[in-house]
Amino acid sequence: MVFGATLRARIREAGLAYLLLLPSLLFLAAFTYWPILRSLWFSFHDVVLGDSKIIWLGLENYQRLWGDRLFWRSLGNTVFYTVLTIPLAIACALLMAVALDSKLRGMAIYRSAFFYPVMIPSVAAGMVWVFLYSAGYGPINQGLRFIGLPDTAWLYDSTWALPAIMVMSVWKYSGYFMLILLAALKLVPSDLYEAARLDGVSAWDRLIHITLPLISPTLYFVVIIGLLHSYQIFDYVYVMTHGGPADATNVLTFYIYQNGFQYQDIGYASTLANVLLLFVGGLIAVIATVFGRRVHYLGR
Amino acid sequence: MTSLQIQTIPSPAAPPMAEPARSALTALRRGWLHLLLVPLALLWLSPLLWILVTSLKARTEVFDPAAGFWPLALQWSNYPAALSVAPFGTYLVNSVMVTGGILIAQLVTITLAAYTFARLTFPGKNLLFTLFLLQIMFPIYATFLTNFVTVREFGILNSLPAMIVPFVASGYGTFMLRQAFRQVPTELADAARLDGCGHFGILWHVYLPLVKPTLIAFGIITVVTHWNDYMWPLLVTNSEGVRTLPIGLGLLAKSDSGADWTRLMAATVVVVSPLLLLFVIFQRRFVDSFMHAGLK
Q1: What pTM does this model have?
Q2: Distance, C-alpha B32 to centroid of its chain
Q3: Phi (first) and psi of residue A58, to 5 degrees
Q4: CB–CB contact A183 B145 (8 Å)
Q5: Cα angle at A244 between A240 and A250, to 5 degrees?
Q6: Is the domain of A105 the same as that of A33?
Q7: Were A134 and a residue from A129, A138, A245, B133 both cysteine, which residue would form a disulfide, CB within 3.0 to 4.6 Å?
Q8: ipTM of the complex
């Protein structure tokens, strides 16, 4: 019977599909979704690393979190870092991309110069900037002295430590965002610029009214990538300041690490991890609703 | 996520410059651009320059503000000195094994999954695909704590597999490859089927050869990401035998923090140069990969 044959073919196809997805699903489940569920479970318990005994705590971890000043500090630092670094890096990237979006001599050199920090391991980058920022012999302080400004201890100064890491992050990621924006700029039809130029529209207005709207889907995409990359601040904090001075650079990822690995308090660390996921998820939702709606899609 | 589907379109040829006045104007404008770009590029390159210069200085020169920028004499001996303080050979082998392991595992899982999502119909397809895509939002930085507990329970802490397993499945790679597979004309697959090819035959002989650029792009991004990985290998390793290059470098930095920058910078050059050299040689490939597919 034809009907039975197609049904059997369909079942066989579905079986094959699940079989082919199995390796991915197994690892997705074990290392992405199970950890998230488990950390939710852990957050209601007292869990000590290496101890199999788990004690039900109810909401105690969340109450503790509410009253934990260091948690609020690290959340504040995370917010400060995220909402300043991403726009700054994107602004730099946009400047580079717009400047490079022409048949310029030395294009490949400029592009490499801006992009190479992406290739450098975060630990190496962090270390080099520790050197650049160091007091006394550090090149940045030497430069400041040269133009008559006072020395700053940058990474040892609780006011400047986090901004110093932010500057480094802008250096590390702008080139990456630049490449993605450059790809988008190449797709903007040049006759649009030509027409605007003939109408006497200034370069600035062309940027604001033609370029930005047309590349807005990519900008939106870059913001999301930036957000996901901002997690990497853990590496910089670990290498450069270890959260110091006086927790001025303690961010959520690092605070989770401290609680989980230094104090072995998996329960509380899980609670913090849930807040981190909530924070990033919330930020993505906000960006999606505020920004996503204004995105223009050319020819759609 | 329409924006993920950026495609290469050859940039339109520049319009012919008929009037000399206009080309002069363009030249002037480009001059301004260089005036902006040269300092910016130098600023961006300066950390690299400092790494190189410091790696060739004598130890005391670094701390002497009066010593000037260039080394008095090139201290090549910093390099062997840096390489002898830690087993960088072992680190290198481990880095290659871990990065290579992740790359191979990912290529297998994403090929199978992408083909399934692109060409097969089955119940629950959309839900499962969403699960794959959502993984992009949960990098190891967000799940490291419970993943550490899991790896510990498996008893593979402090081993090379521990550094590989969390990255075997890649939602983003699956997405990228599925997009590429969907652009392969179905007629080709049908023709191969008539010739007696099964699903695996079609995948191997028709699909994979046609999506090579996507595979290379994904491969480059994976290699760059995991070669440079720091947090996860740091958490799951605690002995010399399994450490990777970035971890080794971090340890060296910690053990003589600020004491001997010349040796540290020499080690940094060694750790940084494999990827930077590859980047310089295959610049176009790297740039294209990150331009059109870069998400990690």
Answers
A1: 0.88
A2: 34
A3: 65, -135
A4: no
A5: 90
A6: no
A7: A138
A8: 0.89
